[in-house]
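User: What would this chain look like folded?
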Amino acid sequence: MPEAAESAPRRPAAAPRIAAFGEVMMRLETPGVRLLSQTDTLQVSYSGSGVNVLSGLSRFGYSALPVTTLPDNPIGDAAEANLRKLGLLPDHIRREGANLGMYFLETGFGARPSRVTYANRAQSSFNTAGEGAYPFAQIAQSVDAVHFCGISLAMNDTVRRSAVAFAEALKAAGKTVVFDCNYRPALWGEGGYDKARPWYKRMLSLADLVMMNENDAMHVLGMPASAESRAERLAELIPETAGHYAIGTIAGTHRGIEADGRHSLAAFLYRGEPDRRFYWAEPLTFPVYDRIGAGDAYTSGILHGELSGWTPDRTVRFAAAASMLAHTVPGDTPFSSEAQIVRAMTEGFGDIER
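Assistant: Here's the prediction, encoded as structure tokens.
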């Protein structure tokens, strides 16, 4: 693609309204690379998979709306204030209850990996909201697409039924359903794959755009693979998944960790019928400052390209660059503009901008 085309992408005539259904969490991070047992100070921020995806999209000019429940107290006030700072709109934020889910982050160094410890999630205002708490049919009429995360499905049956009901309302309204598999073994517990499988299959049957790779197909969906290498299993299982569930687009990444600690990212986008073709970004290798949330930045890039009508090739390269840049800033939420991402696509790492 010519360089001129890289700097002048085609954009939607009017930026769509994108929502995300999921939990808002308080992130409590130790300073530097300290352990919890070493520190008496924690840095507070607010995140969640949907928050991160919407934060990225808000920087691309979209109206970004979380569909969630925050506590009806000063903690909820603080969370909502921080969401507004990220450019998110409060139209579909409920206030009820007293608890916000939290996670504690201890950043790793060298041979010691980073560690996340969850707290208070089962009692959070989002995860205890009853069925019928949200006017899903009404919201479906007011938005263009909604992002769902598999992390939310791990919480309880009420949240799972609500996610399915919301996705069904969106399909009835002719809107776009985005599902990120994001399976977390620690959240599902023993026998997690068997618990998750029927809910994942239901969400996949309603989804238009899915974030996953061959591991999700094998372990969560229980699909057999005859190939041995990751690339061969991906080539075998992703088209099969797209065909079985009538999914238009599936995207994901393969991550590697180099001997010097840098990460490598191989990003793909598979377009279903009638294309039935993989598109790959050039592999990227880069140093990592903060890995958490980088997958959500990738999702925001894929969603932006798909909604903007870009070619699959451009979309996957843009999303890979968005993820790379998200690794370079602290915190879960991406902060890169479209222009900054395009510059990273075309110029790579540069000198100081003056």
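Residues 157-172 form the longest helix (16 residues). If you want, I can go into more detail on any region.
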